[in-house]
Amino acid sequence: MQPKEILKEHVSKTITLTDDQFDYFFSHFTYKKFKKGQTIISEGDKVDCEYFVLSGYLKSFFINDDMKMFILQFAMPTWWASDYNALYSGDRATVNVDCITDAEVLCLTSQDREKLCNEIHEGEHFFRWRTNKGYVATQKRLLSFMNNDAKHRYEELLAQYPTLYNIVPKQLIASYLGVSRETLSRLYHS
User: Which of 13, 126, 134, 151 would suit a FRET pair with 110, their CA atoms being 20 to 30 Å apart?
Assistant: First the structure.
């Protein structure tokens, strides 16, 4: 499927745009390809885009002062990724985004997003819905961290995203779950 069709299918699950409206909507996106391991956003960068994943897998992560990595998000096809604090506030990035696999994305600048929201009412509805959905997912993940043990979080992850375990390296899944690689291995074999 072509990038335009992938985005159109994704958007049409939430809003209805005429062909002309969607053509205009799509014209604000830029197509980019990245290789496995390539960095999209590094801590300290100025961030002016969010990324809609067409193919491949990205990860958003933070590295603390002790050089420990914390995975915030895996972004798979039809997901979005960025350092949203930096994107909206103009601050420098504190979150890194890179490619777990080769990836194709559509980039949308914050300026173009605002333009689309101002010019297409349905576009504003789409972006608000998507932001709300992301907020709810983040809240659920935080509550799971506060309330569930590692085994339960692991089972939740596999139930929600069964293909993840075959694509994403185990050490990254362990980081996402907040456990060691050894603990993940025990969970996997129990």
Answer: 13
